[in-house]
Amino acid sequence: MGTVTVETRFGDIDVKIAGDTPTFQEYLKLDDIKSNPQDYVSSDVVESYRSSLRGENEQFDYSTGVQDTKLRRMLGRADTKEDEERVLKEAFNLSETEFTRDRRGRLALTPEGAQKFGIETEVPVLIDEKGFTRQDLSDLSGLGTTVAGGVTGAVAGTIVGGPIGGIIGAGLGGAGGKSVEEATEALQGVQAQEGSEVAKDILVEGLISAAGEGIFAGLAKAFRVATGAARTGKDLPEEQIKTILDARDENILPSLSAIGAPSLVGRQQAIGEKALGTSARLRKNHEAIMKKLSQFRNEAGEVDVQGVSDVLTSAAKAGDDSLSRNLSESRNQLLTHMQSIADNIGRAADTDKAINEDLFKIFQSSYRSFDDLVETEFETIGKALKDSVGEEKIFNTGGIASDAAKRASRFTAAQTNTTPAKARDVLNTISNLGDNASFSELYFARKSLRDTGMFNSTSDTVSEVVDEFLPRIDALLSKKNLDTFINRKMPGPEFAAQRKLLRGAVGDLNKARDFYSKGNKMFEQVNGAINKKTLINSIKNDVDVNPKGLMNAFVQKNNPKLLQDAEKVVDKFKGEGSFAPLKARIANEWVRENLSRSINLNKPDSFSASAFKTKLDNLGSTADELFGPSIGQVRDLADQLNALSITNVSQSVIDDFARVGGDDVGISLLRSVKEATEEQARFNRNNINKRLKSGDLTPTEAADLVASGSMRAEDIAVLRRFFADEPEAMSKIQAHYMDNLIGDFETTFLTDKTQFAKFGDRLIKSDAKLKEIYGEEMAAQMTKFGRVMKLLGQSAEGGDLVAANIAASPLENLGTILRLSIIGRVFSSQRFYDIFFKRYEPLVRGTDARTRGQIVGELLSDAFSSAIAQGTAQSIDQAVEEVKDQTSSLMKNNMKPPSKTRRSSATPVPQVLPPVNTAQAQPVANQNIRQRAKENPAVAATLLGGLGSAGLL
Fold it and tell me: Using CA atoms in the order 861, 864, 870, 876, what is the torsion angle rounded to 10 degrees?
């Protein structure tokens, strides 16, 4: 096991791997870690990294904030850092050790300073907390007097002196509003500017208000905030910069907050869109999103639940069958190869059914040859038998005849043709010799005794008789006894010829008897394998014998002599080399028979790796005799089989097989078994495949598995292999998955901005699955769209309470509504985004992160400036005319503002309205604001933020 270190932006991540080098699957995992490191580290590490990108100090508290309205309002009116610090020192009696700034220059209270505002902390607390809260409204108070003065002066001046009067009034009102603001700071003792600087600010605000009829003051304030923020855009990570440009390609406009605008401007946009309920940006985005979703659905095709269910279920079944068949074929190929190795060393391809019978026959034939040779040896005795000397009763047989008679009496009652009767008959033949017998009588008595014993070799009774009397007859016929008898019975020269003839006959008899004895002993030495009595009985009595198992009887553990003796006796009586072919057949059949204990192609699952080796080892020294020169190959085969496994093949099995001499073909086949085994195991282990094969799922449940989180890209890939030849199968999967992927996003994103991020995450996290289902090109489009959706879900936090208050008291917030409307028209316009995108893309290439941040800040400033310069006049004109009409109607009807009602803190439902038609927004005689709002959606949107159905009209 080894360790690989992956370098990521969150730090090094150590990954354990199975071996010394990563496998293909491990390479994919390492690549995923490198591409998506945030999925492999804790949320604290990610947040720490993002905080560092935002320039936040880890030892600062950015979430609590100081909730003192007076402090926030006075700091909101401060124009410079010196004004801010004077507010803290003069108005709230804070020393320099009781406040500080973070790396981005934002004010924070030290633990000592925070205690004065009832906050217990161990780290500095940022005054303006992260996110948007109700206290952020106090931060905007610096805009209040200037805008209020400008709006009031413009309205009064217009009534008195027309447009010129409006301009003059706006200028005077704006300057007056600024004067009030600066005077307030002076009265509070927090004015840090010199008189000349204050006068200059008042003059500038007056001119700005005049140029924009009082409205431009609010924009100028926001513009100053934007252009004064040199740090703007530094928080944007590289991935978000790319996504911003991707959004441009999709004709989707992210929020100002998402593209790195200052928080004040971003919040202004967010509040405006929530309060007004729409904007040109939202309308454009809605159109682009609906078009893209429609494109995805159209490309995916019609949904067919039953079709998807059938495709998946049949694929699971086909996969199970195919993989099982593949594994079985791989195993059979391996075992067939091992059998071919056995064939090369002489294995019987088919069962040698004749081996046992042929063995028995050759021993029958050998014994017949032996018996014939014995008869040949006795042929010279016939001369004596034919001569009269053979009839001379010269042998004293009284003792043997008497003993035979006594023994025969035991079998008096024996039934004819039984072995006792046969024993009785041969004993009677011996007893009939009497006291004296001739050579002829003794010879025939001996032959009768031998033949009876041979033909009844299986009878213990006959064998006992033969074993007792045959040696006694042979003793009488010995040369010593013969000389005694013939010297006494045939003395003198006249009997010389007879004596010579009898001595020759007895000598030949002894030779024949010795030949018989040695041959008989050879057959007795293989009696442990082939019974001599059974063999003789089959010859003499023509008895059928079943030779089953005779081959195995000759192959006994550590008994090579049995095979050697068998070879000697067969070669002795059938000719040299007669037994060798049979021994080879024995060896081949033994390999075939015992190999089948390890290998059975009809039952590959019954493979026993050690069975053949165990059998071979049990032969001991017999194996060397049986296989001769081939024993080395046989032992190699046994070792290779012993190293094999076809049910649990691992690399160690392959290595062991190679170590004991496995050939390249066998190793390759073994690897195929390993791969087929692992593939089937993965398929059967997969929960999706198990459920599909179970047959327990309804069509809907089976189809919905495609969209479930439990079905991974790999699962789709595996199943796809088994319906790849069906052209419509994949299209059914694509349609159903797309339907589940999009779901009800088309309707939910209109009412809940969090759906953007959720939908985006859904697409991004499904990237691998998308590639498998739709291919690289379409998956890239969908993933890109997911990143854009996630970006679209980013906007300035907060604004809900502000929007609710404006909607609850619209007539008390005309100035705010007007300002939000103008800001929305300028900073949400296509003109602004076009300027930003046009200049941003070429500059950002080839730059590092810090330089990109600086570029973003500069471009935002330029874009704000250009958009205001090129597009504000029309926006201001439209907004002022509308507010003038509404104000005039309000004054004529003396309409009181509706009372404030308690509202839920839930986000007002945004409505995407059509673009404002200024022609419809012209004043109508004798109509009040309520009536005009009912008839004109644009007016309702401007005043109430899309809450026209909230009972206020």
Answer: -150
Residue found under tokens 């494109």? 295
| Together in a domain, 664 and 716 | no
Q: How many C-alpha atoms does 728 have within 13 Å on its Cβ side?
A: 7
**Does 366 reside within a domain?**
yes
Domains held by the chain: number: 6
Do 473 and 503 belong to one domain? yes
Report the alpha-carbon distance of residue 912 to residue 937 in Å, rounded: 11
Residues 6+ apart with CB under 8 A from 282: 273, 828, 910, 912
Q: Are 604 and 331 in contact (CB under 8 A)?
A: yes
Indicate if 447 and 338 belong to the same structural domain.
no
SS3 content of the chain, % helix, strand, coil (to 5): 70, 5, 30
pLDDT tens, position by position, 617-643:
999 999 999 999 989 989 998 898 888
Please identify, among 665, 683, 701, the residue that sits at the C-terminal boundary of a domain: 683
The verdict on 534 and 393 lying in the same domain is yes
| Continuous segment of H or E residues that includes residue 504 | helix 496-525
pLDDT digits (tens, 9 = 90+) for 309-363: 888 887 788 778 888 888 888 888 888 888 888 887 777 667 888 999 999 999 9
| DSSP symbol at 61 | B
In a domain, 658, yes or no: yes
- Euclidean distance between CA atoms 327 and 678, whole angstroms: 9
Question: Do the domain assignments include residue 789?
Answer: no
Whether residues 557 and 670 share a domain: the answer is yes
Instruction: Find the length of the chain.
Output: 953
Residues 6+ away with beta carbon under 8 Å from 109: 66, 94, 98, 99, 100, 117, 119, 124, 125, 127
Question: Does residue 764 contact residue 756 with C-beta atoms inside 8 Å?
Answer: no
Residue type, 48: S
State the pTM of this model. 0.44
**Looking at 598-717, which runs of residues are DSSP E strands?**
none
Range of the domain at 25: 2-34
224 lies in some domain: no
